[in-house]
């Protein structure tokens, strides 16, 4: 993947789009079906020529680009500090994953199984979502301090909602991997805030 500001911005927008839906599910029990399909597909598309192909076009990441602008302070909407905490936690988990070959191999094997399963079911079918949720629990959750999702307990205790949350978190890890491959790191995140905000605005228009 080319190390460009566009790719880093799109990948970080995808990360925030996942986080936004995690927060929405935890608080309301609802999610956007189109985003669920986009992010589930992004986990299963391991061999793609571009970020646009992985996510089905820039337009599919419009909510994430808007959320990114919000978190960078370039929006009329107030920043969501919980979303930023989730983002930092996922970036940290992705770094731990990168250093753990055994878990990385288990994750890759699990994604291949999910790809095969998606040939029989839609990517958003509850069986596929449950499989991805189980994969997140058996791999990413073993890497260190678990990411604690805050929300309404009766939603978090619902198996279907919890599965969707874990599937989004796995898609968030995928986005963090793409951000790294595009040249993203913590120093760049600090230094490129204005450039990323400008690029997000450009992509939205």
Number of domains: 1
Q: How would you characterize the largest beta sheet?
A: none
CATH architecture: Orthogonal Bundle
Strand content: under 5%
Shape: globular
Q: Which fold name fills CATH's third level, the topology?
A: YcfC-like
Q: Termini, distance in Å?
A: 24 Å
The SSE order reads: HHHHHHHHHHH
Poorly predicted spans: none
Q: Mean of residue pLDDT?
A: 91
Describe it.
By secondary structure, this protein is mainly α. It has one domain (5-204): HflD-like (YcfC-like, Orthogonal Bundle). The chain is built from eleven helices and no strands. It has helices at residues 5-28, 33-44, 51-55, 62-71, 81-99, 101-117, 126-138, 153-156, 159-181, 186-191, 193-204. α1 runs antiparallel to α9 (159-181) and α7 packs across α9 (159-181). The model has no long low-confidence stretch (mean pLDDT 91).
Concise overview:
This protein has 205 residues and is mainly α. The chain contains eleven helices and no strands. The model has no long low-confidence stretch (mean pLDDT 91).
List keywords for this structure.
single chain; about 200 residues; mainly alpha; YcfC-like; about 70% helix; globular
Q: What is the strand and helix layout of this fold?
A:
Layout: H1 5-28, H2 33-44, H3 51-55, H4 62-71, H5 81-99, H6 101-117, H7 126-138, H8 153-156, H9 159-181, H10 186-191, H11 193-204
Helix pairs in contact: 1-4, 1-5, 1-9, 1-11, 2-9, 4-11, 5-9, 6-7, 7-9
